[in-house]
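BUG: 3D viewer hangs when loading the predicted structure for this chain

Environment: internal workstation, default settings.
Expected: structure renders.
Actual: progress bar stalls at 90%.

Input used:
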Amino acid sequence: MKVLAFAGAAFVSAALAAPAQGALECGDTVTGDRKLKHDLVDCPDRGLYIQDDGVTLDMNGHEIRGAGDFGIDMMSAKNVTIKNGAIRNGIDTGLVAVDADKLKLNNLDVINSGNRGVHVTNSNGVTIKKTVVRKSSNDAFFFAQLNNATATDIAVAKGDGTGFDISNVVGLTIEDASVIGDDATSADGIVVTENSEDSEFTDMEIEDWGGNGLEFDVTGSGNVISDVTSRGNEYGFSVSAGTVKIRRSAALANGDDGLLVNGADGVRVTKGRFNGNDDDGIQFSPGTTGAVGDNVANNNADTGITLPPSGVIDLGGNSASGNTNLQCVNLAC
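Structure tokens produced before the viewer hung:
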């Protein structure tokens, strides 16, 4: 049974045009370029193992499913491409890749993982495109010790744990992403921790998480949030450590503050919308530093924008109206 229809499925590499190889089966080690010929069902340990450099695995619209530890397991394999298939149901982690420089994932669907959907660590130059993780019990995506990685046109659907659990990354870009939780039963949409720096999160929708939509608790600097909408979470954005620029982003109808900055320095918030939240639109706690400019904070259940008496620069152009308590504290609106 084929589960997905993929453009470009008719592509056949030169390696596959060589003398025929037997069909891949549960637990096989993939060597050279291979294409799945049928589904792999009820694999007892792992679906497939990749340890050689330069492998391309075309799942050819098929799936790996059933009980086991890993759908696809990679260790110290460089320049590997995995594309065009699904991993589902009862597997602990859909895909795990360690020391996987120049890994490319494209057109994958990871469904009902018992733990994590996609786990990638200690790797450089990773590229992930058109990949969806659905109903993962823990982290949908787990990224750690990544340098110069890019994830584009990806999604988390009905996540129960955390959408993206990210730590110790440098130069990570996540763009064109939909990150949807399962309301109060889920944790946080995106959590970025430890020494993460020079990373950008852009053109994203983050919705329906029981915790924070996007949380930064980092020691690094140079991180940017741009064109991100965080809606229907507990907090829209939370920054407790690290230097972050938040621009052209929105926190709408969240259960607490739209943006809470608590314990962080140098957070700059510009051209944002923070409307209809159940506490403040924007709140910088005492002792924080940063700057705010050209933001709108309307119809929040407490104050529109709250800044400490000193430390946060009013860049001007901020406006607030319709808030239940005060419009603005310690800045001009």
